[in-house]
Amino acid sequence: MKKLTATLAIITLCFISCKKEVKEETTTSVATDSVKTEEPVTEAPLDSAAQMKAWQEYATPSNPHKMLADEVGTWNCDMTFWSDANAKPEKETSVAEIKMILGGRFQEATYKGTMMGQPFEGKGTVGYNNASKEYISTFIDNMGTGMMVGRGKYNESTKSIEFDGEMADPVTAKNTKYREVYTVVDAKTRKMEMFDTKNGTEYKSMEIIMTKK
After folding, report:
1. pLDDT band for position 198 (50/70/90)?
2. pLDDT tens for residues 80-92?
3. In 61-196, which residue ranges form alpha helices assigned H by DSSP?
4. Which of 158, 169, 185, 208 gets the highest tally of CB atoms within 10 A of its CB?
5. Which DSSP state fits 1?
6. Are 186 and 211 in contact (CB under 8 A)?
C-alpha cells in the first residue's frame, strides 16, 4: 500500500510539474507572438552625383548673398540705447566698415566708436545658409567676452530680417534671449532694432540708424 501511495504521489508530482511547464511554455509563446518586431525605416542613400550637387548648391553664393554684398562700404551709425522700458535714451556714434569675405559667402562688419565714454570696437558677421534657408549673425566686441548668435529669415513684405538669438547675461551668468529686427530702409539706409526682456516684458533696448557714405 505504501508503495502504491508513493507511486501515486510521484505520478501526481510529475503531472503537476509537466502541466506547469506546458503552461509556462504556452504563456511565453503567446507573449513572444504578441510582440511585433518593426523593421527600422532607412532612407535610400544618395548617389555620389546627387551628393556632389547638394554640396555645390550649399557652397555657392546665392541671391541672399548678393543682398549682403550690396552693403559693402562705410556706414555712419547713429546709436540709441535704453536700459529699460522707461529709461531715458542714451546716444552714441560709431562707424562700420563692411566687406565680404571667404569668396562672397559671408559679410563682415567692423564697428569703431565710443560706448559709455570708452573706446568701442565690435565685429559682426552675417551669412546665409543655403541648406537651412536662414540668415545667421554673430557679434563680438571689446565690452565683453561673450558672443551673440542669432538666426532669422527675410520678410519680403517688410524688407526686414527678424533674428531670434541668445547672448550672455553677466549678472546671472546664464544666456538670455534677444530679438533683433534688421530693416532695409532704402539703398543707403539700414535700421537695426534690438529687443530685450525685463521682468517678463519686452522692450526696445537699442536702435541703430546706419547711413552709407
Report:
1. confident
2. 999 999 999 999 9
3. 63-69
4. 208
5. -
6. no
CA-CA distances (angstroms) from residue 114 to 91, 92, 94, 95, 104? 10, 6, 7, 10, 30
Place of cell 517688410: 158
Q: Which of 132, 148, 152 is nearest to 140 (CA)?
A: 148
Length of the chain: 213
| Listed residue (205, 208, 198) closest to 176, CA to CA | 198
Q: How far is CA 192 from the centre of its chain?
A: 20
Q: How confident is the model at residue 147, as a pLDDT?
A: 96
Q: Report the pLDDT averaged over residues 29-50.
A: 64
130, 58 in Cβ contact below 8 A?
A: yes
**Phi, psi of 52, rounded to the nearest 5 degrees:** -65, -40
Alpha carbon distance 54, 171 (integer Å): 44
Helix (H) / strand (E) containing 87: none
CA distance 208 to 130: 28
**pTM metric for this prediction:** 0.76
pLDDT band at 144 (very low <50, low <70, confident <90, very high): very high
